[in-house]
Amino acid sequence: MRPTMSIGLFCSASDGLPAAYETAARDFGRLCAVHGFRLVYGGSGRGLMGLAAHAALAGGGQVTGVMPRHLAGRERAETRLADLRMVDSLAERKQVMADLSDVFFVLPGGVGTLDEAFEMVTWYDIGLHRKATVFVDIDAFWTPVLGVFEHLDRQKMLRAHVRGGYDRIATVDEMPAAAMRHRGTAAAEAVA
Ligand code: AMP
Description:
- This protein is α/β, with parallel strands linked by helices.
- It has six helices and seven strands; from the N terminus they run βαβαββαβαβαβα.
- The chain has a seven-stranded parallel sheet, sandwiched between helices.
- Helix 1 packs parallel to helix 2.
- The longest helix has 17 residues, at 19-35.
- It binds adenosine monophosphate.
- Adenosine monophosphate (AMP) is lined by residues 12-14, 42, 44, 71, 75, 90, 94, 109-113, 115-116.
């Protein structure tokens, strides 16, 4: 089945995280498969990245991994993927994931996840793409980061249109509706 849209996912590559985050990652992958969304992610078999990919594959979904060659060992590149793209750098991974995705979601993660999420919002800001970045605020994980955006906004550091470049949902269950909503926005802005 041809996927209806492609969902970029940024999240932790660490194992042994709180159960709520691991459940969220599995639910995310499962929902991608159920809704016919292709999951585009960093290609790791570890951490929340691996859990989401495994759940999508188990549900019969399509998964594309994008893995920097030099990290393939450390991040345990997921060998079960039919579509694993090897790239030369973290920067190229972000570019390829951005090109392939219609919208980005951010599950709990560390500095790598933060870098990826912020870069997608900054690319939206300068008009390199019109794709929203949606923070999945499981157990208020991203609330401090979303507070930084609010702070920037209050201090007039955020150009008005950037507000359309990021969003928050509270649970993974809201992912399909948010994906459809933001795909509509990106398509409308692309033709405007
Ligand atoms: P983390 O959120 O730190 O667990 O990392 C999640 C993913 O982000 C991993 O696949 C890392 O390889 C990746 N990552 C780490 N640092 C960066 C960076 N500076 N730019 C892009 N991705 C990164």
